[in-house]
Write a structure and sequence with these properties.
It is built from ten helices and 17 strands. With 387 residues, the chain is an alpha+beta fold. The protein has a single domain, classed as Chorismate synthase AroC (Chorismate synthase, AroC fold), CATH 3.60.150. The strands form six sheets. Strands 8-7-9-15-10 form a five-stranded antiparallel sheet. α1 packs across α5. The two termini are 28 Å apart.
Length: 387
C-alpha cells in the first residue's frame, strides 16, 4: 500500500513527509521535484510569502543514486522565514511575553473551530498547521508519485478553467496544447483572451482589498482500464480522488467528467456509447462525459476532474469576528496573504491526483520493484487486449 504522512508548521523550521510503499527502482531526482515546487509558487495574484520562500526539497532517505530503494522515502523543505520565528515557534518553553498569542479568529479559516476542538487558547497553534503552506510538501510527494507513473506513460495536466466568474474556452484544444499554453500563462489559463480578463479581475480584487476563487481542471491520460473498484464504497477511485482533492485547503467542490451538467441533461445526452476497434483490438468511446470513471473504476478514457476553490479567506478589507478570550467584536486581523491562488491550486491538484493514481496502480499491479510492477502491468494489458 502506498501512503504518506506529512508534518511541519507554516512558520516552523521545516515541512516534512514520509512516503511508504514506493517500489524499488523508480527514478527520482530532487531536480524533478523542485520543478513542480517552483510551478506551485508562480501565478499572478500571489502574496509576499512567495518572495521569501524559494522551496527546494531535500530527499533524506529512501533514494540512492537517483533510484528508490523500496524503503520509506523522507522529504523535507526548509522554511526560510523560520529565522524570524525561532522564538515564537520554539519547541522548548519560553518567555510568554514573546509568544505573540493569537486570540482573534479569522472568518473562513480553521481558527475558531480548531481552537474549540483541540482546546487551544492560542489560535497560532491551529493556523500554523491548517495553513496552505503545507501544500508545498504535498506537491513534493506528488512529484515522487509522478516518477512512478512516468514509466507507464501516465501523464497529468492541470489548467485554470475559471477565476472570478471569467471562464476559459478550451473545448477545441488538445491536452498537449492546453499544457503548453497554460504553462506559459501568468494565471495558468490556456485561453489567452480569458487569461487577460482574469488578470484584470485579480487586479480589481487587489484594489478593493478582496480575494478571488475559481475552478481548475486536472486531466490524467493513458490510464489503464481497471483501477479502483465498485466492490466497496471506499475503493471507488472517483470517491478517493474527490476525497483527496477536497483535502486541499479552500476547495469546495469536485466534478468528474460532465459533472453537475449531467444532472441537467437527458440520459441519452450523458452516457458514453461503447464501440470496438478491431484493428486496435480495443473497446473505446467517442465521448468522455463520464470523465474516465464508471462505477468507481477507470474505463481507459482520460480522467477529467474539475475543482472549485473559494476565495482566499484572509482579506485586506477585514471581516467581522469575535475575540475568543474577551468575546469582544473586532475586525479580523490581516496575515500576509494572496489575492488569488487558483493557478497554484491546479499544480497542487496535479500532485494530489498523481499520488492517488500511483496508489491505485501499486494496488492493482503490486510488486516490490518497478521491474516487477511493469511485468505485472504488461501481463494485464495483454489480457485486456485479448479479452
Amino acid at each position: 500500500m502506498l501512503r504518506y504522512l506529512n508534518g511541519g508548521e507554516s512558520h516552523g523550521k521545516l515541512l516534512l513527509a514520509v512516503i511508504e510503499g514506493m517500489p524499488a527502482g523508480v527514478p527520482v531526482t530532487q531536480e524533478a521535484v523542485n520543478e513542480d515546487l517552483a510551478r506551485r509558487q508562480k501565478g499572478y495574484g500571489r502574496g509576499g510569502r512567495m518572495k521569501i520562500e524559494q522551496d527546494r526539497v531535500e530527499i533524506v532517505s529512501g533514494v540512492r543514486k537517483g533510484m528508490t530503494l523500496g524503503s520509506p522515502i523522507g522529504l523535507q523543505i526548509t522554511n526560510k522565514d523560520w529565522k524570524n520565528w525561532q522564538e515564537i515557534m520554539a519547541v522548548e518553553p519560553g518567555d510568554p511575553a514573546t509568544q505573540r498569542v493569537v486570540t482573534k479568529p479569522r472568518p473562513g479559516h480553521a481558527d475558531l473551530v480548531g481552537a474549540i476542538k483541540y482546546g487551544h487558547t492560542d489560535i497560532r497553534n491551529v493556523l500554523e498547521k491548517a495553513s496552505a503552506r503545507e501544500t508545498a510538501i504535498r506537491v513534493a510527494v506528488g512529484a515522487v508519485a509522478k516518477a512512478l507513473l512516468s514509466p507507464f506513460r501516465i501523464t497529468i495536466v492541470s489548467h485554470v478553467r475559471e477565476i472570478g466568474g471569467i471562464q476559459a474556452d478550451t473545448a477545441r484544444m488538445t491536452t498537449e496544447a492546453i499544457r503548453s499554453a497554460s504553462e506559459a500563462s501568468e494565471v495558468r489559463c490556456a485561453d489567452a483572451a480569458a487569461a487577460e480578463k482574469m488578470i484584470a479581475k485579480i487586479r480589481e480584487a487587489k484594489e478593493k482589498g478582496d480575494t478571488l476563487g475559481g475552478v481548475f481542471e486536472v486531466i490524467v491520460e493513458n490510464v489503464p482500464i481497471g483501477l479502483g473498484s465498485y466492490s466497496q464504497w471506499d475503493r471507488r477511485l472517483g470517491a478517493r480522488l474527490a476525497f483527496a482533492l477536497m483535502s486541499i485547503q479552500a476547495m469546495k467542490g469536485v466534478e468528474v467528467g460532465m459533472g453537475f451538467e449531467a444532472a441537467r441533461r437527458f440520459g441519452s445526452e450523458v452516457h458514453d456509447e461503447i464501440f470496438y476497434d478491431e484493428a486496435r483490438e480495443t473497446f473505446y468511446r467517442k465521448t468522455n462525459n463520464a470523465g474516465g470513471l464508471e462505477g468507481g473504476v477507470t474505463n481507459g478514457e482520460p480522467i477529467v476532474l474539475r475543482v472549485a476553490m473559494k476565495p482566499i479567506s484572509t482579506l485586506y478589507s477585514p471581516l467581522k469576528s469575535v475575540d475568543i478570550k474577551t468575546k469582544e467584536p473586532f475586525e479580523a486581523t490581516v496575515e500576509r496573504s494572496d489575492i488569488c491562488t487558483v493557478p497554484a491550486a491546479g499544480v497542487i491538484g496535479e500532485a494530489i491526483v498523481a499520488f492517488e493514481i500511483a496508489a491505485a496502480m501499486a494496488e492493482k499491479f503490486g510488486g516490490d520493484s518497478l521491474t516487477e510492477m511493469k511485468r505485472n502491468y504488461d501481463g494485464y494489458m495483454g489480457y485486456v487486449k485479448n479479452w
